[in-house]
Amino acid sequence: MAGSDMTGSDMAGSDMAGPGMTGNLRVPHMSHWGMFEAEVAGGEVVAAHPYHGDADPSPVLGNIAGSTGRARVTGPVVRRGWLENGPGPSTARGSDEFVAVEWDELTDLLGRELRRVVDRHGNSAIYGGSYGWASAGRFHHAQSQVHRFLNTLGGYTRSVHSYSLGATGVIMPRVIGTHWKLFARSTSWPVIAENTDLLVCFGGIPVKNTGINHGGTSNHPTRGALDALRRRGGRIVSFSPLRDDVSGEHRWIASVPGSDVAVMLALAYVLATEGLHDREFLDTHCTGYEEFEAYLLGAADGVPKTPAWAEGLSGIPAGDLEDLAREMASRRTMVTVTWSLQRVRHGEQAPWAGITLAAMLGQIGLPGGGFGHGYGSMNEPGLAPVPYPLPTLPQGTNPVPDFIPVAAISDMLLKPGEQFDYDGTRLTYPDIRLVYWAGGNPFHHHQDLPRLRRALARPETIVVHDPYWTPMARHADIVVPSTTSLERDDLSCTRNDPLLVAMHAAVPRHANARDDYDVFAEIAYKIGVGHQFTEGRSSRQWLEHLYGQWREFVLADGGDAPDYDEFRARGSVRMRTEDDLVLFEDFRENPERNPLRTPSGKIEIYSKDIAGFGYDDCGPHPQWYEPQEWLGGDRAGTYPLHLIANQPRTRLHSQLDHGATSQDSKVQGREPLRMHPDDAAARGLTDGQVVRVFNDRGACLAGLVLDDGVRRSVVQLSTGAWYDPLDPSDPDALCVHGNPNVLTADVGSSSLSQGCTGQHVLVEIEPWTGDLPPIRAYDPPVIRAR
Ligand SMILES: Nc1nc2c(c(=O)[nH]1)N[C@H]1C(S)=C(S)[C@@H](COP(=O)(O)OP(=O)(O)OC[C@H]3O[C@@H](n4cnc5c(=O)[nH]c(N)nc54)[C@H](O)[C@@H]3O)O[C@H]1N2
Ligand SMILES: Nc1nc2c(c(=O)[nH]1)N[C@H]1C(S)=C(S)[C@@H](COP(=O)(O)OP(=O)(O)OC[C@H]3O[C@@H](n4cnc5c(=O)[nH]c(N)nc54)[C@H](O)[C@@H]3O)O[C@H]1N2
Ligand SMILES: [Mo]
């Protein structure tokens, strides 16, 4: 375990927390898309300067300057219908007007409503799953705050796993005993750059995504590592519908979206039939290869998974697959799978088949060989972890047993009392009366927004904390105006970054906004649980307390960390990291002494537990299931374009969609949709035109961008344009802005994981011939005084 030493502050001697060249104040700060100095003038952030140590800062920083005062919730408000008629289901959510109230009235009202629901229906009637990324910073992290708050009230129905990794989070623990170690203890970028000969990437390694890291990051090494690998003579092969999923030189294989598992099986078939697989590794480190091989060769179902079979599904010539399989077996090869491949129906199969293919190559645990999941999905994979726990606000305990897989939100609200399958159990949807959201935007993250709107009409009360008038805030009954991280002191760090950063408030609180912590504390005091929530500490005292706890770990580890005031003044502290990791190196060396946390201690190519569940949509070994939303099926007869709803290049999710970088990418104010010129010509469409994208679930407008780096019959429309219904009172309204989730299906990945499947959807596209409706998404709703 090599480690870099502790060198104290990385910013000592830099111009952080002092005046910069323009004479304006600059303070150190952190966002999920990187560390920066906020330059402040006239009470506003006028520039976000990337941290000088960052090799490849994210362009998303460009959204910050000048944007943080727009679209803000300026004071507490309550929906008129709720205020006048009291709690109850309502289809007026999303089109009703709001009434401005005083803070004292708002916290009274919230306290009383929470008490009512708990007393009458019990704590499980509160949904506090509250998924979402919120902002960087360990203390003011909105999820931690809302969960701690609801726990002091006696708990809430929670959610498990994420929209990011719904399928992986359930399948990988069963196959390799963990899912997070795949990212946090992944083979490091320098090891890949120095050792990998052939990087075979399913979904590419999109550098655009590595700008982001949950909780922040001080460096972005991906682009540099890929360049270093190529300079050494390493090669990159990318299976992807988009050429630019790998930046720079590589071999682009434009396979049919959703066909990756078929391709992986065909590569495995060549290895198995030509004796290129590592029988010894499969015997010593894996279980169930025999069952899988029987399926592969067709003994199980009469269909050998040959390259010719895969050609029919993927469009990739069988000969190319044969050559690639042989090359993979002859060189140091790493197989990588992006997270997007599991955000689809049957999402378990791609990572499971990927690790099985890597196991057959026998290079798992060798430097630069084996398997990777999430290189190019997030900055974290490939970065060195820190060896001690991070400062963490304790969330208390939640005694309520009810939970849902996170993407089952609409199902839960629409089907109280109904049963469903999840990971080998039968769960029952609780009867939710109150939904409490802080730090997330379901109108960004959830599928089939028309259905979500119907679901959100069901509860009696919806509470949303957000700094901005997001579509979710518009659908709330009670809207709590939060500060942004730029208005608060905090501290930030993540498990794979060497810097603990002192985030300094750059600007005063906007209008009548308050920190989530202060709002929760006030409600908690009003209902008699104040001390449990605050433990008597102010925000500033919490920061010092959390820092102090963390400092103990560092000192015990022989490191050097200054006291709190000195830390604030320096701006950051550098931690030790575990450099040059190789994923599963220990397990490879000695699988008996370092077993995986699976039932067999080995890689489970076949899972007896999953066999026991008997699911028809997730069997006991990786296999090919025909997707619903793909070009190979009947539905493509009606909706012949495969839309990829991937992560936006120009922002994080829906955050700061009104910022400069995001706005610069829009076409006539609409979200850009990329299409191959041939597909456009076939429909009489031209570059820069506004188009209508539709299927039987919904429709949106988008701005056309022609690009021959998009596979034919595929279009790409990223997530994140704020939902902007032409008629806000109609759940089926056209979104005039370009939110792809009006089109996506609200269907779980499988009975096993019930994860988000928003990445793929079939659509048709036609010219928009009507008048161009204005974008109103960033304008606040109607708010009246009492
Ligand atoms: N079709 C499709 N849909 C997808 C995906 C896909 O690939 N395709 N990807 C999915 C994935 S991976 C994810 S992670 C989700 C992301 O979905 P979300 O995480 O819900 O999206 P964000 O836009 O990051 O929402 C964060 C919200 O927190 C607010 N916020 C920021 N700071 C604070 C604060 O201090 N306090 C409070 N109270 N609020 C704050 C922001 O204003 C914003 O509204 O989307 C998912 N949706
Ligand atoms: N700039 C930016 N970066 C982000 C985010 C963001 O909002 N903005 N969000 C972050 C979050 S929360 C997450 S979870 C990660 C998500 O990380 P991912 O889910 O990996 O990211 P995506 O961009 O959705 O998808 C990556 C690429 O997969 C390709 N792809 C899609 N379907 C298929 C397929 O069937 N086969 C193959 N071979 N390729 C396919 C698409 O071309 C797409 O560009 O991204 C993170 N990074
Ligand atoms: Mo995510």
From TrEMBL:
<feature type="domain" description="Molybdopterin oxidoreductase">
    <location>
        <begin position="72"/>
        <end position="524"/>
    </location>
</feature>
<dbReference type="GO" id="GO:0030151">
    <property type="term" value="F:molybdenum ion binding"/>
</dbReference>
<keyword id="KW-0479">Metal-binding</keyword>
<dbReference type="Pfam" id="PF18364">
    <property type="entry name" value="Molybdopterin_N"/>
</dbReference>
<dbReference type="GO" id="GO:0030288">
    <property type="term" value="C:outer membrane-bounded periplasmic space"/>
</dbReference>
<keyword id="KW-0560">Oxidoreductase</keyword>
<feature type="domain" description="Molybdopterin oxidoreductase N-terminal">
    <location>
        <begin position="29"/>
        <end position="68"/>
    </location>
</feature>
<dbReference type="GO" id="GO:0009055">
    <property type="term" value="F:electron transfer activity"/>
</dbReference>
<feature type="domain" description="Molybdopterin dinucleotide-binding">
    <location>
        <begin position="641"/>
        <end position="757"/>
    </location>
</feature>
<dbReference type="Pfam" id="PF00384">
    <property type="entry name" value="Molybdopterin"/>
</dbReference>
<feature type="region of interest" description="Disordered">
    <location>
        <begin position="1"/>
        <end position="23"/>
    </location>
</feature>
<dbReference type="InterPro" id="IPR041954">
    <property type="entry name" value="CT_DMSOR/BSOR/TMAOR"/>
</dbReference>
<dbReference type="GO" id="GO:0043546">
    <property type="term" value="F:molybdopterin cofactor binding"/>
</dbReference>
<dbReference type="InterPro" id="IPR050612">
    <property type="entry name" value="Prok_Mopterin_Oxidored"/>
</dbReference>
<dbReference type="InterPro" id="IPR006656">
    <property type="entry name" value="Mopterin_OxRdtase"/>
</dbReference>
<dbReference type="GO" id="GO:0016491">
    <property type="term" value="F:oxidoreductase activity"/>
</dbReference>
<dbReference type="GO" id="GO:0009061">
    <property type="term" value="P:anaerobic respiration"/>
</dbReference>
<comment type="similarity">
    <text>Belongs to the prokaryotic molybdopterin-containing oxidoreductase family.</text>
</comment>
<dbReference type="InterPro" id="IPR009010">
    <property type="entry name" value="Asp_de-COase-like_dom_sf"/>
</dbReference>
<dbReference type="InterPro" id="IPR041460">
    <property type="entry name" value="Molybdopterin_N"/>
</dbReference>
<dbReference type="Pfam" id="PF01568">
    <property type="entry name" value="Molydop_binding"/>
</dbReference>
<protein>
    <submittedName>
        <fullName>Biotin/methionine sulfoxide reductase</fullName>
    </submittedName>
</protein>
<keyword id="KW-0500">Molybdenum</keyword>
<dbReference type="InterPro" id="IPR006657">
    <property type="entry name" value="MoPterin_dinucl-bd_dom"/>
</dbReference>
